[in-house]
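User: Hi! I'm working on a homework problem where we have to compare a predicted structure to a textbook description. Could you give me the structure for the chain below?
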Amino acid sequence: MQKFLSLLFTISAVLSFFMLFAKLLRHLLIDKTIGGLFLLSNEQRQKTIGFYRKLPTYNRAGLWILLFSFIVFFAVLALSFINPDFAVAIYPTMKLVGIIDVLVLIHIIDEFYYTKRILKAIDKSFGRETL
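Assistant: Happy to help. Predicted structure tokens:
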């Protein structure tokens, strides 16, 4: 289990850098995304806007799962004070789980920020279009 989590952590750390680079590009191109939205037909535009409006709901589900993971992480740490031998055996695995939880939390927060920003831009753009 330790080797699997260690491999998973290594892969997630490498992929995190690629994800952050892709998210940086996505944030830089947000205006082009909004501009491209005007070129779509009304049906496609409504589907795209509906997709962006549903994203926070999916992210909230991910946050609940992440909350459960943090609770388990802290419960194991609390149990380690009761039985120190348990702490020695489980510490490397739990350390990796905690770091992975933090990486996932950073990505979810960034996704919330991007979705909120693009929805504000869509509302502002369509508000100007109808006036």
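For your comparison, note the following. The mean pLDDT is 74. The chain has four helices and no strands. Good luck with the assignment!
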